């Protein structure tokens, strides 16, 4: 291997370990997605709730901010104390980090809905639930999507350190590379798909976000 | 009574008293305008009607039923509402915006499509606009959609909060005509907030003048113009309108000359000429024995035809312009001036000749309208025996004047 250049080494690695890389790739992706999905399931309703009860908003966002400031490795360790080694610890970590962008964006999106539109919706006889479903959510969807996108990109990076608690994912490959002598190509073999995953997720969600933007609506 | 508001009070949290002891009874088919300075409580009062706000005390009854005991959502679906800022749904097509309430009421799709087409036609926009989004319409077009959206579910009661602000005068007038027509033709009841006195005068059956949360005056447009309750109302109406208001409430019958010179078709031209000479006029009105107006002859006609014709009947002009004695000067004076007639016969309901309006009469009317005000002080001394010197006595003066001549 030593007489090959970096690119050749990389291709060689993929040829030899293609199936392994692919399985780590999907594992990595799923961990991130699960974390973000759980965060969305919890975070979006919280965001909606604090948008309707503005007194709580400062407190809730402050808490989410504090979570965000804990370094990821420290967070991972703290949660590991509770949940032990394994994939669950990473998912919970990812979940916690995803909360802030999701809550914040949901809250902002809801607040940005033109009050006169809400007023006319209510004035025409929508129930509170209908105002939420027919007016508020569709109109804040693109901002909420932007939150999910931020969260997912962030999480793909964080999942990479999940390898320290034995969760697997592309981080495993990177660590292998750092442990091997002359492992530059192996590090690259793990880092490249991680970056690619982040970029593609960003592009795809960005596209969906644009689609969801009501101000872009044209016949 | 269709809508009754009794002793309504509204104090906002924080202590701001926005509405104080508001009492109003509205009959079905009325067009009520709330007018007043900014912050006088118009929007607040209106929003209590569809329970967008709850009153601090007092009751509102719709068809005799206390709205406080109704389901607010159902109530609102029955009442059309145009908010101060239109509030179209930016993420919905014009069609979906128009049929929002029908959709909440679960109308069948077919009926909603039908309705959307009817509504867009009503405001004279092309049908393919139904598939557009609000951002693709101009401000005025959006406002029109806002108006028909409040009518789409056939609401009997429609609340409109300054719906025609920020519209060019032509569109504004077209929309005013539209809502007025809906009220007159379909018997819908309107409660309409405006800042614009001309708009209120044009549309209302009754005007509610508000200031500082209290009703200053409730009256018909004519009533408000003739007898403003206090100085606030006077100022709101404005001096210009008070002056203009005078010819506007005077009828033709009050200003016409009462003894028009007339003849009958059977008379000879010699007789007619003699009559003209005697009365020193250049034309004669022609009536039959029952005094029904038949036509008119001028001195030119007599001159040209003196040798060929014998009776008035042969030469009289049958196709003549005339006005009704009970029509308002406001509506006729411009028509008369534009056409340039010298003398206009005035008839009653049965087409009997009762008077004549001459160019000299018109001069009086225009003079009065423009400058009558300045002579008021001297005149009002005579008319009101020196008791009433308020600037508004102009309105009653017109009455007195009509009385003098009549
Ligand atoms: N939510 C609120 N809280 C406290 N005070 C309010 C609130 N809404 C309105 N007010 C006050 O109540 C008064 C009446 O307000 P309202 O909106 O009814 O006035 P308006 O006659 O509609 O004025 P405009 O012509 O400017 O629309 C104003 O002094 C206003 O400042
Ligand atoms: Mg208002």
UniProtKB/TrEMBL annotation, chain A:
TM region(s), chain numbering: 29-53, 73-100, 152-174, 186-208
Membrane topology: Multi-pass membrane protein
Subcellular location: Cell membrane; Membrane
Keywords: Membrane, Transmembrane, Transmembrane helix, Transport
Keyword flag tRNA processing: no
Domain ABC transmembrane type-1: 25-205
Family: Belongs to the binding-protein-dependent transport system permease family.
Protein name in UniProt: ABC transporter permease
Source organism per UniProt: Lactiplantibacillus daoliensis
């Amino acid at each position: 291997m030593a007489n090959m250049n970096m690119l050749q080494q990389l291709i060689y690695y993929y040829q030899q370990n293609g199936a392994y890389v692919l399985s780590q790739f999907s594992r990595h992706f799923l961990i991130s997605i699960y974390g973000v999905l759980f965060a969305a399931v919890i975070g979006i309703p919280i965001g909606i709730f604090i948008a309707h009860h503005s007194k709580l908003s400062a407190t809730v966002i402050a808490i989410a901010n504090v979570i965000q400031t804990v370094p990821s490795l420290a967070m991972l360790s703290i949660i590991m104390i509770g949940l032990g080694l394994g994939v669950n610890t990473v998912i919970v970590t990812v979940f916690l980090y995803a909360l802030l962008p999701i809550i914040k964006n949901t809250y902002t999106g809801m607040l940005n809905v033109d009050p006169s539109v809400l007023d006319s919706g209510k004035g025409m006889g929508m129930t509170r639930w209908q105002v939420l479903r027919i007016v508020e959510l569709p109109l804040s969807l693109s901002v909420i999507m932007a939150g999910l996108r931020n969260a997912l990109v962030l999480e793909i990076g964080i999942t990479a350190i999940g390898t320290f608690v034995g969760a697997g994912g592309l981080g495993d490959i990177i660590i292998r590379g750092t442990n091997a002598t002359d492992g530059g190509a192996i590090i690259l073999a793990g880092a490249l798909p991680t970056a690619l995953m982040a970029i593609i997720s960003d592009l795809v969600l960005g596209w969906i976000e644009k689609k969801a933007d009501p101000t872009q609506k044209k016949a | 009574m269709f809508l009754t508001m009794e002793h309504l009070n509204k104090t906002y949290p924080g202590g701001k008293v926005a509405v104080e002891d508001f009492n109003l009874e509205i009959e079905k088919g009325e067009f009520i305008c709330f007018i007043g300075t900014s912050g006088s409580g118009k929007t607040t009062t209106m929003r209590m009607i569809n329970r967008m706000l709850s009153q601090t005390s007092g009751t509102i009854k719709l068809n005799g039923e206390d709205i406080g005991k109704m389901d607010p959502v159902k109530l609102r679906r029955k009442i059309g509402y145009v908010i101060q800022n239109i509030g179209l749904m930016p993420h919905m097509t014009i069609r979906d915006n128009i049929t929002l309430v029908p959709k909440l009421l679960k109308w069948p799709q077919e009926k909603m499509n039908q309705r959307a087409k009817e509504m867009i036609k009503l405001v004279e926009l092309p049908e393919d606009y139904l598939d557009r989004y609000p951002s693709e319409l101009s401000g005025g077009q959006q406002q029109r959609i806002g108006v028909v959206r409040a009518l789409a579910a056939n609401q009997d009661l429609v609340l409109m909060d300054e719906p025609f602000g920020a519209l060019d005068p032509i569109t504004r007038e077209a929309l005013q005509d539209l809502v007025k027509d809906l009220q007159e033709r379909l018997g819908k009841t309107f409660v309409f907030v405006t800042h614009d006195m001309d708009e209120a005068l044009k549309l209302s059956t009754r005007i509610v003048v508000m200031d500082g949360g209290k009703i200053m005056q409730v009256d018909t447009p004519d009533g408000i113009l003739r007898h403003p309750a206090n100085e606030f109302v006077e100022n709101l109406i404005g001096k210009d309108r008070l002056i203009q208001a005078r010819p506007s409430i005077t009828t033709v019958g009050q200003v016409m000359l009462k003894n028009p010179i007339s003849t009958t078709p059977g008379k000879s031209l010699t007789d007619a000429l003699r009559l003209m000479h005697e009365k020193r006029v250049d034309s004669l009105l022609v009536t039959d024995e029952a005094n029904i107006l038949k036509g008119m002859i001028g001195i030119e006609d007599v001159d040209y035809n003196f040798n060929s014709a014998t009776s008035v009947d042969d030469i009289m002009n049958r196709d003549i312009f005339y006005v009704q004695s009970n029509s308002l000067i406001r509506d006729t004076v411009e028509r008369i001036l534009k056409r340039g007639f010298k003398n206009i016969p005035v008839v009653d309901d049965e087409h009997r000749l009762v008077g004549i309006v001459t160019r000299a009469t018109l001069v009086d009317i225009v003079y009065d309208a423009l400058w009558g005000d300045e002579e008021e002080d001297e005149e009002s001394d005579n008319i009101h025996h020196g008791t009433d010197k308020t600037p508004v006595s102009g309105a009653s003066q017109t009455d007195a004047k009509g009385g003098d001549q009549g």
